[in-house]
């Protein structure tokens, strides 16, 4: 008897030792099979505007992590009831549940019930594949036991609820609540929680979107289980089973209007902040951007309309960008009329800018260098510079033209002559300061004749210098990036540098404003102050055809650029019209999106305003007559039409043979008096209008002194 007892005791001890060694083995193996990095789940990042409003989600898996404290207890109980009734009693593996499952399988002659715990499911979903080998099940058990050893039940349940798949791209309980009921998990009712708890077993079968009746049946099974396990009373369970399934599906919105902007955000995160595209998709970041949602949508919608794009067929392309003047933030971006993710972003493709290059390559630096002023006269003649002879588009030459008129009329000859006076190096120095580096050395720079061209982004940001009183900084799409914990890990800190004096910037702004009101950019309507410049490059193989059409412009608060053309121009694919079309489209985008309507330009302090141009009119007729004073003095009065512009000055010359002698001047009046006149003289006088801005005389009008007898 004692011998049997001893043998039995030794057997028990041996069994205990083996079990203990087995447990130690499992714990030891856990360090090899449990990679805790895999517990860091892919989490959707959120794109928000400057006010914190959500724009869209970015994700590999649509998941938003929540803490278990945010999940109502009745929702937790629903999952425990159906997935793991003894969750709080086992240590990763439920031997009792496994035995019950095996027993039922034997009775049914096949597999009818699983014995996996919530911890095992978590282990399988995160660490293992779906193969059915014995070794995989062994690893699953090892990982489950180690998870239970390292984490609390609450943490394991939290990880499970955040990890499990609910169909239709929704991962985790929060994403599921948003998808099916358009609410946070914290607001789920008992029956809603039960419905969600029924989905993970077979998401495609129990989807309430696709199979509402099957979903309801499974929901009711879970509600009964909750009653069986005392989480609900049977009365509550029955009443809730009688309720219909009421969904409020938050359907994913297709957002083709947002595609360009998103790609540019991905690019900037990678290039500027070293955050890869994959990391941005799975890292649960909050990315704040300056995007104006309605503006972006408006630009996209108008870009779909063929009436704005004049070409030989309907495959004309275009690009548009709009920046915030103050910050340089990208408010809207369209990389093409049919832009696809990771496609050709035409905002980054270099093109020939045409006359839009004149203000930044010629006129602004020449004013800054104090070489010329807005009303300085520039040579407007057809002149050869070696092998290069620029011509005006209309082949008309004034001989001399003010810078003001050269800009609004887009005079090519005057622009090239001005650059020749300024010097190419000075032009390139300024261009470098505003983010444009060119290798070209010829005077064709003045007209945008570049070997590589410039991008719409570069042009918009270059013109921003005029809108910001001479300051330049790089554009940006990302204002800041916060991690899951709300810590700012990246932010835009670009500070502006002065590249023009405020005076120069303001003078350029005023001249470019007149380009819109009376120059080449008159096409279309915009109810507010707008300044800008047009540009068209010719396609010389076809008469009247254009290759590139531009408008670059700005209001008090925004600046932008539009380019139109073909990706490849040839005789069958070219523009049939020029810059009037992008000009109108630009104005229509701003007007439709209600951007700066009825907003005027604000002149900075300590800056002298630019006067409107003086337009000298031809004198049609001059009369000369005598008047008499009480003292018997005789005065000769010369009269002509009153000038519309009171700033016009008139010079009165007396003709003495071949010479002219200046008698006097008068400003803003239509008459001039010459006292003590010799009535017996036959002097001829010439009235000459004089522009005090350009220091240029107009065409004179002669009149002879009348004979006294003829005046009676």
Question: What does this 3D model show about the protein?
Answer:
- InterPro entries: Beta-lactam/transpept-like, Glyco_trans_51, Glycosyltr_51/Transpeptidase, Lysozyme-like_dom_sf, PBP_transglycosylase, PCN-bd_Tpept.
- Residues 52-226 form the Glycosyl transferase family domain.
- Its EC number is 2.3.2.-, 2.4.1.129.
- GO terms for molecular function: acyltransferase activity; glycosyltransferase activity.
- Residues 318-590 form the Penicillin-binding protein transpeptidase domain.
- With 712 residues, the protein is of the alpha+beta class.
- It folds into 4 domains: 1-33; 69-241, Biosynthetic peptidoglycan transglycosylase-like (Penicillin binding protein transpeptidase fold), CATH 1.10.3810.10; 349-477 and 486-592, 3-Layer(aba) Sandwich (Beta-lactamase); 623-711, Sandwich (Immunoglobulin-like), CATH 2.60.40.
- It is 35% helix and 17% strand.
- It has 20 helices and 24 strands.
- The strands form 7 sheets. A 5-stranded mixed sheet has the order 2-1-5-11-12. The protein has a 5-stranded antiparallel sheet with strand order 7-6-16-15-14, sandwiched between helices. Strands 19, 20, 22, 23 and 24 form a 5-stranded antiparallel sheet that branches.
- The radius of gyration is 40 Å and the shape is elongated.
- It starts with a helix and ends in an 8-residue tail after the last strand.
- Residues 19-28, 101-105 and 108-114 have low confidence and may be disordered.
């Amino acid at each position: 008897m004692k011998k049997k007892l001893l043998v039995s005791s030794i057997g028990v001890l041996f069994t205990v030792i083996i079990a203990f060694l087995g447990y130690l083995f499992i714990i030891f193996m856990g360090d090899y099979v449990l990679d805790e990095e895999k517990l860091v789940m892919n989490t959707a990042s959120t794109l928000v505007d400057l006010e914190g409003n959500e724009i869209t989600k970015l994700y590999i898996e649509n998941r938003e992590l929540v803490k278990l404290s945010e999940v109502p207890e009745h929702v937790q109980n629903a999952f425990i009831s159906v997935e793991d009734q003894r969750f709080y009693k086992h240590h990763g593996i439920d031997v009792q549940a496994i035995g019950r499952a095996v027993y039922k399988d034997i009775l049914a002659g096949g597999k009818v019930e699983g014995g996996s715990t919530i911890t095992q499911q978590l282990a399988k979903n995160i660490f293992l594949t779906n193969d059915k080998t014995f070794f995989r099940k062994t690893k699953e058990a090892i990982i489950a036991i180690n998870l239970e050893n390292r984490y609390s039940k609450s943490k394991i349940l939290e990880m499970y609820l955040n990890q499990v798949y609910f169909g239709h791209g929704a991962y985790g309980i929060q994403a599921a609540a948003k998808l099916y009921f358009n609410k946070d998990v914290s607001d789920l009712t008992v029956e809603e929680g039960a419905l969600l708890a029924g989905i993970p077993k077979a998401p495609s079968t129990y989807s309430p979107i696709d199979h509402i009746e099957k979903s309801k049946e499974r929901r009711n099974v879970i509600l009964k289980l909750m009653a069986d396990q005392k989480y609900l009373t049977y009365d509550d369970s029955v009443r809730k089973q009688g309720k219909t399934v009421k969904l409020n599906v938050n359907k994913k919105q297709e957002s083709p209007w947002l595609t360009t902007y998103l790609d540019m955000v991905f690019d900037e995160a990678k290039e500027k902040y070293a955050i890869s595209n994959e990391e941005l998709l799975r890292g649960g970041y909050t990315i704040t951007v300056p995007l104006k949602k309605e503006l972006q949508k408006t630009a996209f919608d108008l870009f779909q309309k063929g009436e704005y794009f004049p070409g030989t067929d309907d495959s004309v392309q275009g690009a548009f960008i709009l920046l915030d003047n103050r910050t340089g933030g990208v408010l809207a971006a369209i990389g093409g009329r049919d832009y696809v993710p990771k496609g050709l972003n035409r905002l980054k493709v270099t093109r020939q800018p045409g006359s839009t290059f004149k203000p930044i390559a010629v006129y602004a630096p020449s004013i800054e260098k104090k070489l010329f002023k807005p009303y300085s006269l520039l040579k407007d003649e057809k002149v050869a510079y070696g092998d290069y002879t620029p011509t005006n588009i209309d082949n008309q030459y004034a001989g001399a033209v003010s810078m003001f008129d050269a800009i609004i009329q887009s005079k090519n000859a005057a622009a090239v002559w001005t650059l020749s006076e300024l010097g190419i190096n000075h032009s390139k120095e300024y261009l470098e300061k505003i983010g444009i580096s060119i290798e070209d050395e010829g005077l064709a720079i003045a007209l945008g004749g570049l070997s590589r061209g410039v991008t719409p982004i570069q042009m918009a940001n270059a013109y921003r210098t005029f809108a910001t009183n001479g300051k330049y900084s790089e554009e940006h799409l990302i204002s800041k990036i916060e991690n899951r914990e709300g810590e700012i890990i990246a932010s835009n800190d670009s500070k502006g540098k002065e590249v023009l004096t405020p005076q120069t910037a303001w003078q350029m702004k005023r001249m470019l404003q007149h380009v819109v009101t009376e120059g080449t950019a008159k096409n279309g309507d915009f109810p507010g102050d707008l300044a800008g410049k047009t540009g068209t490059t010719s396609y010389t193989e076809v008469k009247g055809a254009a290759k590139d059409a531009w408008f670059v412009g700005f209001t008090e608060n925004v600046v932008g650029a539009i380019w139109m053309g073909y990706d490849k121009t040839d005789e069958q694919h070219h523009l049939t019209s020029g810059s009037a079309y992008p000009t109108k489209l630009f104005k229509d985008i701003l007007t439709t999106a209600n951007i700066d309507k009825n907003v005027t330009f604000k002149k900075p302090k300590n800056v002298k305003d630019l006067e409107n141009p003086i337009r000298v009119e031809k004198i049609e007729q001059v009369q000369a007559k005598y008047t008499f004073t009480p003292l018997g003095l005789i005065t000769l009065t010369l009269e002509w039409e009153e000038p519309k512009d009171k700033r016009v000055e008139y010079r009165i010359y007396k003709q003495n043979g071949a010479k002219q002698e200046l008698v006097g001047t008068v400003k803003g009046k239509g008459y001039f008096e010459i006292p003590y006149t010799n009535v017996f003289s036959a002097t001829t006088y010439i009235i000459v209008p004089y522009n005090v801005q350009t220091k240029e005389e107009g065409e004179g009008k002669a009149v002879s002194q009348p004979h006294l007898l003829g005046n009676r």
